[in-house]
Structures are given as structure tokens and as C-alpha cells.
User: What shape does this take?
Amino acid sequence: MHQCLVHICEAFEEITDYLAHRSQEQDQIVIKLFSDFIDCFSSLEAEKLEFPKEFQKDAKYYLQCEPVMMKQFEDIEFRYLMLSDFYDFCRLTKRYTKV
Assistant: This one.
């Protein structure tokens, strides 16, 4: 897995109890991780095709500023949930393992 995606998974592990004990600091981390994910994932060519179409579609439409996608991702919790789905997928498929 590309190093920038590994970094996102590592950083995501540092966010604990986000939905139960949300803070401005954690919001900022989620915003940065989401931005990093969009930048990294969209820059990948062949490797991104190995991931579910939902990740490909979300990144593509977000970068195209598709109105429904932009509205959806205004919600920081929605960004967190997408990152959580990505992290879970990487762990379940053994693309990423905790260090």
C-alpha cells in the first residue's frame, strides 16, 4: 500500500472515542486526514483501482466539487466515518497492519 495511505491509517489510529468525545482538536485532525486522503488517493493510478468503487467515486466527485458530495462532506462526522471505513477496509484486507 502506498506510503501516504499507510500514514493516514497510522494517524487515524490516534483518534480515539471521536464520536463519543468529539473535540475541536480532533475535528481538525479529521479535516486534515480527509484532505490528505483525497490528495493521496486521487494521485494514485493503478493502486486506487484495487479499492472499492465507493472510495474511488467519493474522491473523484469530491475533487470535481459535485454539489451533493460537497454538501455531504461538509459534515466532519461524515468525513470521519469515511476514514473509518477506509481504515477498516485496509485492516480487513490486510493491506495495513498495526505497528
Remarks:
- The chain has one domain: 3-92.
- The two ends are 14 Å apart (CA to CA).
- The mean pLDDT is 92.
